[in-house]
Design brief:
The protein is an alpha+beta fold. It contains 8 helices and 8 strands. It has a single domain, classed as Alpha/alpha barrel (Glycosyltransferase). The strands form 4 sheets. A two-stranded antiparallel ribbon has the order 1-2. Strands 3-4 form a two-stranded antiparallel sheet. A hairpin with a 2-residue loop joins strand 7 and strand 8. Helix 4 packs across helix 5.
Length: 222
């Protein structure tokens, strides 16, 4: 027994600070680039075997806010668990990407082209109430919480962008308790796109974090 314990001890002392998640592929998809607003971090949308070189999404672009938002949330949570020193720079750059992609209407564009300009016309990149806008709001809410004690000025900037997004959501989201009949089933039609419970779940993630931070009555009602 003593032999077993002495063998395991070095691993047991290191294990609590080591993530069980292998982020190697995600790390390979990450790239830092420069735009007129400064440095941003992107997640390349495809990398095909066997060499895993970056590949564009035909007609859409090289990277999207949808993936970058989820990557940012992962890096924030894994950094909290492991303290991995490679993550803070990536987190900030990925959040800068979210800020870069917000449109004047409060929603978010999704894709960027090879020259890092915004794809503002393709149907999966429009700044509209859709998956990518909800994931961007979620990532920004998590980021405001993440930076609140680390960089108050950056957290304040993030909050301004979140508030613009929540205002757009508030104007768009149906407040009526109406039902729509689909295939003989009456379903709630006040969800995103009438019955988008899956999209609503991501919105709730974002609003829950925001409410935790600010106790906003408007957000609680939403």
């Amino acid at each position: 027994m003593k032999l077993i314990i002495s063998f395991l001890f070095p691993f047991l002392t290191v294990f609590p600070q080591t993530s069980l998640v292998n982020s190697a592929h995600l790390d390979k998809l990450y790239e830092e680039v420069s735009v007129k607003h400064g440095h941003i971090g992107i997640i390349h949308i495809y990398a095909n075997a066997p060499d895993y070189k970056w590949v564009d999404a035909s007609g859409e672009g090289i990277a999207c806010i949808d993936d970058a938002a989820r990557a940012a949330v992962f890096y924030m949570k894994d950094y909290k668990a492991t303290g991995n020193k490679k993550y803070p720079g990536k987190i900030r750059n990925l959040i800068n990407f979210q800020l870069y992609m917000q449109a004047s209407n409060g929603f978010f564009y999704n894709f960027i082209w090879k020259d890092y300009s915004i794809d503002s016309t393709f149907r999966t990149s429009l700044a509209e109430p859709n998956w990518w806008s909800w994931r961007a709001l979620w990532a920004l809410a998590e980021a405001e919480k993440f930076y609140r004690d680390k960089d108050a000025a950056f957290a304040g900037l993030i909050k301004k962008h979140i508030d613009i997004g929540i205002s757009a959501l508030n104007k768009w989201l149906s407040k009526e308790d109406k039902l729509v009949n689909y295939g003989g089933f009456n379903l709630p039609a006040w969800l995103p796109s009438e019955t988008g419970a899956d999209q609503a779940a991501v919105i709730v993630k974002a609003l829950s974090v925001y409410y935790e931070l600010h106790k906003s009555e408007n957000v609680r009602r939403l």
